[in-house]
Design brief:
Strand order of the largest sheet: 1-2
Mean pLDDT: 77
Number of strands: 4
Strand content: under 5%
Helix content: 40-55%
Shape: flat
CATH class of the domain at 175-234: Mainly Alpha
CATH architecture of the domain at 175-234: Orthogonal Bundle
Distance between the termini: 47 Å
Low-confidence stretches: 148-152, 158-174
Radius of gyration: 21 Å
Largest sheet: 2 strands, antiparallel
Length: about 230
Amino acid sequence: MQNLTPLILKYKQNKTVTLLDKIYLELKSTIKQKAKFIFFAKWYPMNLYHKCKQCRNCDKLNNIPKSEYQLICKDCDNCRCIKGFFNLKKSNLCEYEDVENDIWLEILRTIENFDETKDFNTYVFSCLWDFVPSFITKDFIKSLTHKSLTQQDDEGNEIQIDISDGQEEPNPKPALQEILKECKTDMEKKVCELYLENPQLSQEEIAEKLGTYKMDISRIINGLRKRLKRFVTK
C-alpha cells in the first residue's frame, strides 16, 4: 500500500468525495482483512477485558496486552470476571457488513484526528490494532449475559431449552407506535418502517429507497439495535 499521508493531507484541505473514494480504495483490502478477523475469528470475553480483583493481583497478567487476557484467563479456576466468550459470527449478533462499515467509520475519525506531523499509514494501523466495533458496549455485553440456550432441571442438570418449530402461536408483535417512540430522528423512523414492512430488505436497498449511503444506514441500524433490544429479546 502506498504512503497515504500526502493524500490524507490533501483530503483534509479539500474534503472532496473523489479524494475520499481514493482513500477508501487504498484501504479497502486492509478493512476487509480486519473485518474478517473481527467477525469470523475473534472471540470477545464477556467482561470486555475489565479485570476482577483476582486478575488484578495475578502475576500471570503482568505486562500482558489486554487482548491476550482470554488466553490466560479462560482456564483459570480463580478468575471471577470471565463469564464466557462470544464470537460475532457464531453468536449471530450482527452482519459482516456492519463490521466493515464500523471500521470505515473509525478510519474517518482517525483521518479527522490525524496529526499532520506523523505518518498516516503507521497511525491508522496503530488505531485499528485493538479496534472493537462501536456496538460492543457494556450494555451490549449485559444483554448477552441474560441470553442462554440452556437451563437447569430440578436436579441441577443442564438441559437444552425447547425452541418453537413455528407451529405454536407466535408472540404478538410490538405495536408500531411503541417501536417508533424509540426513534430519535425521522430517518430512524423511516428505516424502522421499511424493515417492518419488508424484513428481507438489505441495507443497500434501504439506502437506495431513502436516497442515502449504505454506511449511513448501517450506523443507524447499529444505534437502533441497542435501543430496540427489548422488543427482540422478549
